[in-house]
From TrEMBL:
InterPro entries: ANTAR, CheY-like_superfamily, Sig_transdc_resp-reg_antiterm, Sig_transdc_resp-reg_receiver, WH-like_DNA-bd_sf. Residues 122-183 form the ANTAR domain. The modification 4-aspartylphosphate is found at D52. SMART domains: ANTAR. It holds the Pfam family ANTAR. Keywords: Phosphoprotein. It comes from Novosphingobium bradum. This is ANTAR domain-containing response regulator. Residues 2-116 form the Response regulatory domain. The keyword Chloroplast does not apply.
Length: 192
């Protein structure tokens, strides 16, 4: 597992390293500069990012939340103090584990595992949501195309669907693709 440790304090980063050093399956990268952070993390391509911020100012916290929004990786963030607003912002930014006053070597590995599991669960939910939205959009296109065929050709709903299905089979395409073609043609020919 490739792990990027983001910490401007070498002593605090050492605590995280100590918590992971006993595990053979870890390749560690310590990043101490905030400048160019997203690019550096992109070069490393870690499996997980551990951010230790200590007592960050609101601006620093916002900067790191912006970084976490860009990365499609599990992120565990360690801070010494927090408030409801910072916690809400971390959730919105996609932080998988937000740990307040919990930086200790023996806690690192369980928190890392938690962050990876939460990220995986959240990623599955996002994928399922995207699929559901895609299917809903396809269904809406098919329904609109059926209405166009019903209005323009006098078909019943089953006949309109059968026509879309037959055309899709003849052209080796999905019904949704044929429905989109019907909608495009309808718009080009002055339909609403």
């Amino acid at each position: 597992m490739r792990i990027a440790i983001v910490d401007e304090s070498a002593s605090r980063a050492a605590i995280i390293r100590e918590g992971l050093i006993a595990f053979d399956d870890c390749e560690l990268f310590v990043l101490t500069e905030r400048r160019g952070l997203v690019a550096r993390i992109g070069e490393i391509a870690p499996d997980i990012v551990l951010m230790d911020l200590g007592n960050p100012s609101r601006d620093v916290l916002e900067e790191y939340f912006a970084v976490s929004r860009v990365l499609a990786r599990p992120i565990a963030m360690f801070v010494d103090q927090s408030d409801e607003e910072a916690i809400a912002a971390s959730v919105d930014a996609g932080v998988s584990a937000y740990v307040v006053d919990g930086l200790a070597a023996h806690r690192i590995r369980p928190l890392l595992d938690l962050a990876v599991r939460r990220f995986s669960a959240f990623s599955r939910l996002e994928k399922d949501l995207a699929e559901a939205k895609g299917k809903l959009a396809e269904r809406e296109s098919i329904d609109q195309a059926k209405r166009i065929l019903m209005d323009s050709r006098g078909f019943t709903e089953p006949q309109a669907y059968a026509e879309l299905r037959k055309t899709a089979m003849n052209q080796g395409k999905r019904i949704a693709e044929i429905a989109e073609a019907v909608l495009t043609a309808h718009r080009l020919l002055g339909g609403t």
